[in-house]
Amino acid sequence: MNSRLDNSKYYDVIIIGTGPAGIFAALELIKFSEDNLNILMIESGSDLANRVENRNIQKSDVMQGWGGAGAFSDGKLTLTADIGGHLSDYISINKLEEYISEVEEIYISFGASRDRLVTGEGKDVDEARKTALKYGITLIPYRLLHIGTDKCSQVLLTMYDHLKASLKIKVNFSETAKEILVENYQVRGVKTDQGIYKGKFVIIATGRSGAAWARKESLRLGLSLENNPVDIGVRIELPAEISSHLTDLLYEFKAKYYSPTFEQECRTFCVCPRGIVTQEVVYDPETREKWITVNGHSYSIQEKETKNTNFALLVSSRFTEPFDDPLAYGRSISKLANLLTKGNVIIQRLADLKRGRRSNFERIKRSAIEPTLKEAIPGDLSFVLPYRHLCSILEMIEALDNIMPGVNSSNTLLYGIETKYYSSKIKVSNNLETKITGLYAVGDGAGVTRSLVQASISGLIAGRAIKENLTKLSQVNLVKV
Which of 184, 207, 211, 404 has its CA 20 to 30 A from that of 21? Predict the structure, then answer.
């Protein structure tokens, strides 16, 4: 027996975070032929069973824990190299497409179904794109596999059971990473709120909920960072029939538009056909602060379908000097919305927003649309959204009405604030290793991805790089013996 295995504080690989990036790194690492490989996964949240049980009681469980934010997403796998991250900056498009196919097969092997696969091809799709272009809208069709909110957690639970069966992995839940230990530009381990763990390799896979910590640690360690934009906007809810010609064709339509007033990029995101609008609790494990944003889900079974479709309209903003913290900017706007509603999501009729008046419960009740997020508080989004964002969103709604008649209706509901935080991009090599030897940065938390598929791929890339290094170390040790 290798004596290292008797020391519970020593690990060959330490993975910080158990979202898709961390999980796929672990799935790859357990294939390593050495039986005495020791892997530790550190997670500040709970295991998936506790997350499901406490989801409606402790809403911070929606973002943290096994599966990360993806566990309660509606599981859209964007099977294209054009959407979902920046991995094409590190590997070729052909290689990325190979990884996409591989990740698709892995998700299917753990329970995802091809029944809800959309190809994004055909004559009708081409016609829809041409029509959109007439109004300055770029419609982006792509191949997509929809798992569904109800099935996504089941798939991730199956992955957990598979990993748990391996003697190579230990998972520590409710434990927060504090510092990455480095000596002479070589990673040495991780310090948490419960102890110190030594290790040869460390993978930062913190996801969106750990973005602020990943940024802070990167600055402390002298790693180069590049700010990604922050996306701020609203979630639109309307009768499903208004958008059905697009959702039946593409399921999730992705549309980009440059608003005429500011020439600001505005885009649709996370379309949820016949879905529900949901609250999302963003939790900072460092400061223990919580704030509420809005999101959307859709299910895989017909019985859970609603009469409404919802999607986000987001405005992208970049910052340079003197301000260089887009995460703080998005967080501040979200907290301002929470301040006005005492910690809830704002809901407003489009007619009220245009007339410059606050929606109230009576006006919401008179609307032709029944809101799916019952906890939302009527209010006025113009008190929260910067003018640039508000103007761009209203201009895109007007443009969308040309290809989706009815979206610019008085009854259309807007929820806010929806904020997508993209971590500062940590400078890494083609195999996602930082300038600190043995330290890898993957997934949304490292700013290199922004989707389930590319986050999963980044985990595979790091896992394979570490496997190759472990093989080299094993060969060196054999030579020494």
Answer: 184
Domains of the chain as residue ranges with CATH: 3-112+147-226+424-480 (3.50.50.60), 230-420 (no CATH)
Q: Look up residue 225 and give its two tokens.
A: 């960072």
Write down the residue that tokens 């550190």 correspond to: 42
Residue with tokens 């672990």: 26
User: Which residues neighbour 215 within 8 Å (Cβ) at sequence distance 6 or greater?
Assistant: 225, 327, 423, 424
Entry field: residues in the chain: 481
Over the stretch 77-114, which tens digit does the pLDDT of each residue have?
A: 999 999 999 999 999 999 999 999 999 999 999 999 99
CB within 8 Å of 55: residues ≥ 6 apart: 61, 62, 72
Contacts of 305 (CB under 8 A, 6+ apart): 274, 275, 298, 299
Whole-Å CA distances, 380 to 362, 390, 478: 14, 11, 69
Could you tell me the pTM of the whole model?
A: 0.90
Both structure tokens of 319:
């910052």
Q: Considering Cα of 431, then 435, then 440, then 442, what sign does the dihedral take? A: negative
> Which positions ≥6 away from 106 have C-beta within 8 Å?
24, 27, 456
Instruction: For the chain, give the percent of residues with pLDDT over 90.
Output: 76
Tokens linked to 190: 């991780």
The phi and psi torsions of 266 (rounded to 5 degrees) equal -130, 140
